[in-house]
Structure formats: structure tokens, C-alpha cells
Amino acid sequence: MDPITEAIWNGDLKEIQKLIKAGEDINKQSEFSGQTPIHLALQENKREIAIYLVENGANLNIIDNNGLTPLMIAVDIPSRDMVELLLLHGANVDAINEYGETCLHKVIDQNSKIAHLLMSYGANPFFKDNDNAIPRDYVTNKGVLSFLERYSNKFRDYSPALFFDFVNEYKNIAMEIGNEFIIDINKLKEIDFIKRGAFGDVWKGIYDGKPVAIKKFLKELRGSDLEMFYREVALLVKCKHPNIVETIGFHLLDKADPIKSTYPTCIVLEYVPRGSLSERLKKLLEKNLRIKKDTIISYAIDIAEGMKYLHDKGVIHRDLKSGNILITNENHLKIIDFGLARYKAGETDITGEMTINIGTPNWMAPEILRGESDYTPKVDVYSYGLVLWEMVYREIPYKKLLLQVGMEEFKSKVGFDKPTLKLPKKYLPEEMNNLMARCWDHDPDKRPEFSEICEILKEIKNKK
């Protein structure tokens, strides 16, 4: 028995942390079962260990000898918390087992909450198994059929007609911005792997002789995933600001299918060399070092200026966190990752209710955690306040609480019970602490606009 497997059986998280830091392979497959540590941790319901493995780079799409991915195990348990955690970190929602079944096939008749969650992450309800059956064919009770009717809008996301509309939408964008935005794939070269994201891998590369970041899709995007791609492209091409990562272009692969005539393969972005703010904070914590006060204020201004720009354009980011903020060689910050961003209601033809349960839970505003759909751009202000807190404490906000109580109770506690993070009163100026507390106020109306935040921070900077 290898050391990590033994530690998982014993439930020894500290030993696992020690082993992985010492270089043990977090994705090593068992010769007998083909399982990796994350497979085993989920199977044995070792929750804290599973969370640690996911957050430290476990490959969520490895298939064991029984044809199971970690997500399939989480669905079989069933554990909604673990399913959501895996999906947040890039698990393939449409992976299939030996019978051609997806996770949606397996739960649609048994667990409507998990089925709805899978669909919200792009699960295809028209995916056929080896017997040509779609998930709906697995339904045996009337209650589930009514569940399907309640979420009929989700099914429309996958109609060929709507897919065709998305393609036409791309063509309209291309006409507006000119063909120079479509990259020449022959001039693009991958150099080094950077990280795995929700839709695929991010690489450092070279395009036309210049360093770039390549956001490379590993599967054919469809339904809500495809909508997210076009939304991101539409936003990125319009965003020109020193605190927003610049978009170089994207590539489309031509296909013979008359419906799916184009297939997005990657987005090419400005390369920001020093990595993310979250990576820097993690390294500082390991060395017991802190960011200087003046640097925190400078960083806070950079983020606020970028967010003010987005909000002025009517765009809500919805996933603002340290992992989506990059550091330049000049020690300035740039905001990235607009896959979850959207226009506020009324700014485009996509009006009405906003999407619920969007973002990363630790930074998610209480109104989103409560499941409200009429939220405002102030959700970004809340997340911004938590990023300010991160820069002082170098930790993920509410990490211990989420580990202790699980996803559902966490949403209830932060959404309704109003827990507060400790203000760093002895480290930052009083005005900065007051601003931070206002940003994460439970009442969105009491949170400041980014225009006011920029003014307050500039006054604080000028006092020093």
C-alpha cells in the first residue's frame, strides 16, 4: 500500500499534506483499481481530505479501472457538496461510464437537486447512452417529470436552433471587430503548462513572436458552456483598460456539420508573467511574510479601478477573487476570467432575473448564497472586500468554516447568519478597515460603489 493510500484509509490529513509537500504524486493510480487518491477519498467519504486534494491539483477527470471519474463517485454517494466542489474545479460533467451513461443519466430519477446542479454546469440532457437512451428516458416517477418541466428552460440551451443562434452571434461580433481578432493558428505555439481551469488548460505560449496566455478548451463547448464562451468573448473585446487583461484573439475550428459549423478551441490573452495574486499570497504565508501596507493600498486601487471600469460598462464580474487577479512585472494588478461575467439586467437583451449560485462560494455575496436572483453589481463589491482581507491574512476567506460545516450549511450561515471576518485593525489604516467592513456589509445598499472606493483609497494613499 502506497503512503498516501494508507494515510487516506487512516483519515490522516496532516500526513497527506506532508507527503504531497515532499513530492508524492497526488494523481498516482493504483495498479489494482486504477484509483487515484481523490477517487479513494471520495469513496471512503473522507471529506476534508477530498477538499484538500481538489484544492491542491488532483486530476478530476482520471478514469479508474471501473470506468469511474471522481465526479461519478460523488454522484453515487450521493454528496451534493462534493459534486459542486468537483464541478467548480473543472470536473467533466459529461464524462461517460462503460454503459455510455453520464452522471445526469444516473441521478435524474433519484436526486433532483444534484440533477439540477449538473445541468447548471452544462450537463447535456440529450446525451445518448449505449442503448440510445437520453437521461429523460431513465425517469420512472411523475415527480421527477414535473422537475424536468420546471427546468425546461435549461433544456432549451441545448437545442440545435439555439446553438445556431450562438454561431450567428459570434459572426455578428466578428463583423464588428474585424477579422484581426481571429488568430492565425499557425502563428500560435504552446510553451509551458500553467494551470487547469473549469473548461480546460491554460498555457504560456508564443503568438506572432510575442508571449501570450492560451486558454485552451479540451472539449467541445455546448449549451450553457458555449453561451459562457460567447459571453466572455463579447465582454473581452470591449474591455480596454490597464487593470483588465487584454485579449489578443480566439480561434475557431471549421466543421462540416451545418449546425455546429464552428467550434471554439481557444482564447489568446495577454501574458501576465508573475502569476496570480492568490499564488503570491500562498507563497508569502508559507514563508511567514506579509505584503507591505503601501503595496496593499496600491493593489486595492488597481482592482477598484478595473472593477469601476467594468461596472461603468454595465458588466458584473461575479467571480472576483485573488485567483482571478494577475500581477505584472511592474507590480500592478490585472483582472481576468470573465467566463461568469454578464451584463446587469437592462443592459442587453438578456434581461430579467440574474443567474443564481454563480461564483466561488468563499467569495460569494450573501444574496447569491441565499439563492436570490435580483442581485446587483454590489455582489462584486462584497467579493472585493474579501480580497482586501485576503491580502492581509494571506488565507482563503471562510475556508475553515466551509471545511467544518459543508457547502449547504455554509451557504445558510454566510447567507443568513451574518458571520464576519476579523478586521486587521493593527495593520491597516482605520479608513481602510472601515472601507473593508462596508464592502462586505450584508445589506447591498450599504456597500459603496467602486467610484467611491477609488476616491477613498486615493485619499488614504495621499495621506501616507
Automatic annotation (TrEMBL):
Gene3D superfamilies documented for this protein: Ankyrin repeat-containing domain, Transferase(Phosphotransferase) domain 1
ANK repeat residue numbers: 33-65, 66-98
InterPro entries: Ankyrin_rpt, Ankyrin_rpt-contain_sf, Kinase-like_dom_sf, Prot_kinase_dom, Ser-Thr/Tyr_kinase_cat_dom, Ser/Thr_kinase_AS, Ser/Thr_Kinases-Pseudokinases
Keyword Kinase on entry: yes
PROSITE patterns per UniProt: ANK_REP_REGION, ANK_REPEAT, PROTEIN_KINASE_DOM, PROTEIN_KINASE_ST
Pfam families noted in UniProt: Ank_2, PK_Tyr_Ser-Thr
Superkingdom as given in the UniProt entry: Eukaryota
Keyword annotations: ANK repeat, Kinase, Transferase
Record SUPFAM superfamilies: Ankyrin repeat, Protein kinase-like (PK-like)
Any GO molecular function: protein serine/threonine kinase activity
Family under the similarity heading: Belongs to the protein kinase superfamily. TKL Ser/Thr protein kinase family.
PANTHER family: SERINE/THREONINE-PROTEIN KINASE TNNI3K-RELATED
Protein name: Serine/threonine-protein kinase tnni3k-related
Species the sequence originates in: Anaeramoeba ignava (Anaerobic marine amoeba)
